[in-house]
DNA sequence: CTAGGGTTAG
């Protein structure tokens, strides 16, 4: 089993374990279980791992510390946090590995407050974090965009003399990039003496999501000069940098370079390429590219095509993608909303109401927009239209004041962004309940200039929020950084770093 | 003789 684990991921250890159990001889010991559980976590084989857990209970091996940590890691890799926590609570003498595993689990599913709390509790109980622990907790900050916590951890690493090895540095580069501090990310990156493919890729990704496409390409060039082989993920970074920057010929060059180096394009690569063609409005070529793909396009690719049709108010390439999309994902609200807006943009009102009716009949509810802001080391979440925050009353007052000033300034609300069947006044009000505005209002309430207001959002920003945020940055003389699902927007003095291209 | 936790993804 150990031999198979040292090679590419495979089912073999699980198959061997089954045979061992069937033969009833020899009896598996804690080493055996650790190996087979490792295999289950790599494969995310939930059912198989559960069987092993049962076996561990029956054989009494469940009390072994290695078996426990292996089980814990297995559940967190399957994103079964409740089951993982159960195993964790049962461990009497929690090792640094156990703490790291549970913190890493929280981090992967974006539970940053929980990850931080566990990190503090770990130290309270006298267990010293090591490199692997801090990588997990720094990564939690990256996922959620918690810059202050990330900075605190960076200082902690320096102070506690935790070895700033390649992986710790890479995690810090990633954290600063994902928090919009690209210069800090670059600074740390440059101090890494021997950069591996992951470090290079992380830096390239960082430049890409921060809108520095040329820097991403430069870094890719330096990586080649350094003789580090790019991998499939590197190309996702480079291609998405080209897409965000509208760098069409560079993107095509990267694509053929990738094929030359023998990397087989995955769905993500095709997606980036379609994105690149669509952002530069080459819809015909994009559609042709999709038709030539050797694998069946996934919903994300069809959505890119349809967004492009919507932006160009064009019906020529809608039929097949629309049909495919609803066939592949009949329960995803995002698809119905996109199609409805697309038909509206082309004034196909009949088709628009068809889609809306379909959505209603199937009882599909839209995923609400959700934005978070970090205040005093805690992430505060805001959901569109929800006023459940303890300080909701104060936030509402800020919103009222801001909306008045923004409208006085001459802002025309983009009510086309609202689909509901309500009057224009209600539509305007609904816009002011968009989650990022609640988060920004909370930032205005709790912080003062020159503190940057940093917001992380689960969806993309809408046109109206983008305009309003530009205006707020000027009227209130505040720098506002919004990380949306795909990239950063840095608003300073009435303008955005994306130059209105996102 | 062999075992547990780590970073990148449209």
UniProtKB/TrEMBL annotation:
- Every copy of the DYW domain together lies at 410-502
One GO MF term on file is: RNA binding
Give the InterPro entries listed for this entry: DYW_dom, E_motif, PPR_At4g14850-like_plant, PPR_rpt, TPR-like_helical_dom_sf
An annotated GO BP: RNA modification
Q: Which PANTHER family match?
A: PENTATRICOPEPTIDE REPEAT SUPERFAMILY PROTEIN (PTHR47926:SF461), PENTATRICOPEPTIDE REPEAT-CONTAINING PROTEIN (PTHR47926)
Q: Which protein family is named in the record? A: Belongs to the PPR family. PCMP-H subfamily.
Q: What protein name is recorded for this chain?
A: Pentatricopeptide repeat-containing protein mitochondrial-like
């Amino acid at each position: 089993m150990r031999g198979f684990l040292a090679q590419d991921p495979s089912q073999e250890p699980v198959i061997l374990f089954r045979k061992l159990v069937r033969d009833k001889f020899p009896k598996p010991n804690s080493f055996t279980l650790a190996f087979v559980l490792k295999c289950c976590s790599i494969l995310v084989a939930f059912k198989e791992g559960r069987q092993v857990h049962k076996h561990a209970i029956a054989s009494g091996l469940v009390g072994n510390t290695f078996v426990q940590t292996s089980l814990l890691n297995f559940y967190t890799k399957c994103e079964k946090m409740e089951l993982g926590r159960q195993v964790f609570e049962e461990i009497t003498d929690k090792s640094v590995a156990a703490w790291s595993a549970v913190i890493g689990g929280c981090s992967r599913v974006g539970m940053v407050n929980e990850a931080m709390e566990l990190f503090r509790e770990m130290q309270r109980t006298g267990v010293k974090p090591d490199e692997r622990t801090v990588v997990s907790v720094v990564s939690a900050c990256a996922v959620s965009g918690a810059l202050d916590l990330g900075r605190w951890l960076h200082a902690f690493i320096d102070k506690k003399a935790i070895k700033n090895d390649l992986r710790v540095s890479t995690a810090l580069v990633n954290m600063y990039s994902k928090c919009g501090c690209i210069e800090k990310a670059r600074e740390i990156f440059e101090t890494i003496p021997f950069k591996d493919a992951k470090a290079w890729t992380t830096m390239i990704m960082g430049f890409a999501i921060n809108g520095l496409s040329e820097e991403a390409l430069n870094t890719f060039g330096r990586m080649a000069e350094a003789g580090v082989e790019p991998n499939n993920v590197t190309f996702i970074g480079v291609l998405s940098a080209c897409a965000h920057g509208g760098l069409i010929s560079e993107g095509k060059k990267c694509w053929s370079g990738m094929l030359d180096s023998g990397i087989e394009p995955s769905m993500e690569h095709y997606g980036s390429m379609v994105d690149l063609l669509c952002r530069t409005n080459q819809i015909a070529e994009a559609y042709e590219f999709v038709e030539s793909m050797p694998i069946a396009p996934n919903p994300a690719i069809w959505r890119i095509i349809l967004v492009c049709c919507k932006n160009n108010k064009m019906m020529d390439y809608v039929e097949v993608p629309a049909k495919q999309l609803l066939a592949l994902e009949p329960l995803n609200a995002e698809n119905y909303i996109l199609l409805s807006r697309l038909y509206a943009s082309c004034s196909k009102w009949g088709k628009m109401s068809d889609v809306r009716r379909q959505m209603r009949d199937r009882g599909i509810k839209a995923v609400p927009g959700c934005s978070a802001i970090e205040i005093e080391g805690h992430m505060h979440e805001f959901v569109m239209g929800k006023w459940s925050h303890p300080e909701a009353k104060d936030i509402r007052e800020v919103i009222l004041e801001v909306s008045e000033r923004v409208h006085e300034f001459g802002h025309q609300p983009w009510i086309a962004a609202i689909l509901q069947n309500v009057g224009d006044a209600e539509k305007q009000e609904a816009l002011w309940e968009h989650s990022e505005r609640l988060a920004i209002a909370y930032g205005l309430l709790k912080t003062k200039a020159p503190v940057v207001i940093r917001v992380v959002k689960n969806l993309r920003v809408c046109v109206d929020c983008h305009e309003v945020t530009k205006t707020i940055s000027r009227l209130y003389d505040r720098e506002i950084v919004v990380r949306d699902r795909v990239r950063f927007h840095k608003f300073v003095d009435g303008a955005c770093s994306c130059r209105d291209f996102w």
